[in-house]
Amino acid sequence: MDLAVASSFFDNDPLYDAYSGVYLYDGQFATYDGSQLDGSFIRRRTVSLAPDLVLPPRRVVTLYGEQWVLSDPIFDGFQGETIRQTMSARKCHQLYKVGTIKEILTGALTARDIYAFARWTKSTAEAHTSEMEPYYEFSFSLTESSIRGKLIEADGKLWHARAASEVAEGFLLAEADLLAGPDTPLARVTVDTVSAIDPVTLASVPGPSYPGVLVQRYQFFRRQDQAEPLNHAGDMTLLVQDAPEFAAQHEVSIGGQRWSVIGRESVEEGFALHVRRS
Does domain 185-277 have CATH number 2.60.40? Predict the structure, then answer.
């Protein structure tokens, strides 16, 4: 008896490529409920397929109208013959936009659409008020790349992926701070630049305006920030695209309020400006 053929007898769950919608093949999905090493509870599925089947390019499948991101396969065998491959599957909450500061803030078409599983892991404390801000983990397929340092956007929410690495289960795990959402609508701002100072009246001559994100210093803290002047109460970090005006701008205006630029750090296609109310 060919055990690989026999093990496929009960493959009757139709799988589709989540990105293209193309039918792939039938497999077996099994529910698995268990606890994580950190004590949190997670519900997932395991996907079992015939050993000769090839996973879709981005390893996200649709089953009964729901999207699941797949891990690296683990192969099972008997007497030297491979008879089955099994993957862990995490339910994708939605399709996320992933891109640089410039791509996300300007709505550029070059931002990538990626399915991912997201879960809250902890909250980080705001230094001045001790208010707690949520911190998330995103599980992406290992076929995705260049997630670290990018912004993640969906349904009016915005995260910053501060770290990304492969985990033992076979996913690309990104740790991300929530920068903006329904509870923080003022995080998204319009930034007015200054093109020149009138030498007679000393009034500022308005320059171009750009979209930006104004966040607490700790939400976008990087190693270079330690070399900047000490933070004062009320200091913020302003994320903007890499427009030439921000390369040497010493002051910006947000909603009529003037902010002095204390320091700047170049990030991918953008700047993180340390700003203080003038």
Answer: no
